[in-house]
Design brief:
Elements: E1 3-7, E2 10-13, E3 18-25, E4 34-39, E5 46-51, E6 57-59, E7 67-72, E8 77-82, E9 91-98, E10 110-113, E11 117-122
Parallel strand pairs: 2-11
Antiparallel strand pairs: 1-3, 3-8, 4-5, 4-9, 5-6, 7-8, 9-10, 9-11
């Protein structure tokens, strides 16, 4: 049974930083693409960043230069380092896992999802 558990969310002022973690069990993160998605109030879920089996990444334009995705295959853990946070980054952040190798920011490519961790950025 695949389980994804996010942690690291919280409240921070604009300009601050947070690091999200996603611990995965029942799934080999080194073989497949994993990603971070977010859904803000009244908005659709959007892809934030993803990393493929080899470590190649893709990042949404809205967070490029501020957010960095990485993974530790030995620990089966996915990370999202978020710097220079803005109020518009406020959202529930979800970790997701796919059964495809190539990187993708499309939510329809992902099969397993965590419960989410809330990030709130105040101005």
């Amino acid at each position: 049974q695949v389980q994804l558990v996010e942690s690291g969310g919280g409240s921070v002022q604009a300009g601050g930083s947070l690091r999200l973690s996603c611990t995965v069990s029942g799934y080999t993160s080194s073989r497949y693409c994993m990603g971070w998605f977010r859904q803000g109030p009244g908005k659709e879920r959007e892809g934030v960043a993803a990393v493929d089996g080899d470590g190649s990444t893709s990042t949404a334009e809205s967070v490029k230069g501020r957010f960095t995705i990485s993974k530790d295959n030995a620990k089966n853990t996915l990370y999202l380092q978020m710097n220079s946070l803005k109020p518009e980054d406020t959202a529930m952040y979800y970790c997701a896992a796919a059964f495809r190798f190539a990187v993708s920011l499309r939510s329809s490519d992902y099969i397993y999802w965590g419960q989410g961790t809330q990030v709130t950025v105040s101005s």
